[in-house]
Amino acid sequence: MRVVHIPGHKNGPADAISRDNLGMFFAQVPRAARTSTQVPQEVSRLLCEAHMDWTSPTWAQELTGFLRQDWQNQLERPTAQGPRGTGTSAREWERSHSR
After folding, report:
1. Fewer Cβ in 10 A, N or C end of the chain?
2. Among residues 44, 46, 40, 47, which one has the least CA distance to residue 62?
3. Which of 23, 62, 24, 69 shows the shortest CA–CA distance to 44?
4. Closest to 29 measured CA to CA, from 45, 17, 41
5. Using CA atoms, how far apart are residues 64 and 77, in angstroms rounded to an integer?
6. How far apart are the first and last CA of the chain?
7. Dist CA 13 CA 98 (whole Å)
8. pTM of the entire structure?
9. Any idea what DSSP says for residue 20?
10. Per residue in 46-59, pLDDT tens?
């Protein structure tokens, strides 16, 4: 993983959030969700516990494992809306439309 600072004038949405200017943020990203999303407990543990070493291979493996697992869950989970309002999971929709 590589972390790079992007100056605020080149990354308006992040700059707006860092300044707690939600009006500016939503003006730049009108399709952004207007309700908060709970951070999964595993992400909080990986990012916030004092003994975590973000540079260790073990930490990177744990984060990667979580992200892969969560992505798989998102693909398999049926949603009320689903892709294009179908009520199916993203993976099911993709399979049925990839001919």
Report:
1. C
2. 46
3. 62
4. 17
5. 20
6. 35
7. 33
8. 0.42
9. T
10. 888 888 888 889 88
Pull the structure tokens for residue 47: 């990012």
* H-assigned helices in 1-99: 12-18, 22-28, 41-48, 57-76, 90-96
Contacts (Cβ under 8 Å, ≥6 apart) of 76: 89, 91
| Class of residue 42 by CB neighbours under 10 A (exposed 0-12, middle 13-18, buried 19+) | middle
> Which amino acid belongs to residue 5?
H
Structure tokens at 44: 């909080």
Per-residue pLDDT tens for 5-22?
888 788 899 899 889 999
Residues 43 and 65 sit within 8 Å (Cβ to Cβ)? no
Enter the tokens of residue 92.
């099911």
